[in-house]
Amino acid sequence: MSAHRLSFTKVGKASEIPPGSMKVVKIGEQEILVANVDGVFHAIANPCTHAGGKLSEGTLKGAVVTCPVHGSQFDVRTGKSVSGSKFMFMRSKVGDAASFEVKVEGDDVLVFQRSVWGM
Ligand code: FES
Fold first, then answer.
1. How many CB atoms lie within 10 A of CB 112?
2. 48 near 55, Cβ under 8 Å?
3. Any idea what DSSP says for residue 58?
4. d(CA 66, CA 59)
């Protein structure tokens, strides 16, 4: 039998992620992108919902991260897709990215996750 637990996990130091920057962190097997938008931290899944490109290797402008592979754009505050992927002259819709709650305690950045424990 297994049970679910809700918890925040420390993923790094706020001072390591200045405004306008991003950092990829891992919680278990899950890669999460943590972004600092004007001093407020946000977290979304790092793999792009189009074809798995690493959003952490893309660019952050304001609250929008652009995937380095085909240019899909996501709002890091919500995970919502704001622009689809581009291939030649075609643009395709992509799904929203999962988003996670973030809190800061002192200089620690914590991301809310759901974990499974027990057997
Ligand atoms: S993998 Fe991100 S837009 Fe294609």
1. 15
2. yes
3. S
4. 5
**Ligand 1 pocket test target in 55, 85, 88, 92 with most atoms within 8 Å of CB:** 85
Q: Taking the C-alpha atoms of 101, 27, 35 and 39 in order, what is their torsion angle to the nearest 10 degrees? A: 60
- pTM comes to 0.90
Which domains does the chain carry? 13-113 (2.102.10.10)
| pLDDT for res 84 | 94
Cβ pair 74, 19 in contact under 8 A: no
What is d(CA 74, CA 90) in angstroms, rounded to the nearest whole number?
A: 18
Token code pair at residue 43: 């977290």
